[in-house]
Amino acid sequence: MTCPQDYTVDSSQPRETETVCRMEPTAAQRAARDRIAAGLAQAGFALPGTLIVRSHACGKPACRCHADPPRLHGPYAEWTRKNGGKTVTRRLTPAELAEYQPLFDNAKKLRALLSELQDLTLDIIEAGSSQAP
Hints:
Elements: H1 27-41, E1 50-56, E2 73-83, E3 86-92, H2 94-131
Antiparallel strand pairs: 1-2, 2-3
Helix pairs in contact: 1-2
């Protein structure tokens, strides 16, 4: 199989093993790729990690959070991410949550677009391998 123009393999560089391109996207698949790329190009700033909003009980046995029914503390917004290979969690104030929410939304959109691009690539690869002799 040959590589489409935008998936050309550079054979001028020495390699231990030769990479074989098996991607032959259809016009519809190229259009989907272009749509995804446009979405990625339009993306704004994004924050990595996970945002959760939760309530919890404390360690004081006489506290209201241990009553029947319990009245938990919170809700608290917590942002967890990896930084230098370590997990970092930061509690956000309501003002920070309001300010950062669009950045978390952008990150979610970027992850969805990347996932869509990966699924499209898998579809193209699988279609190419099923047509191989």
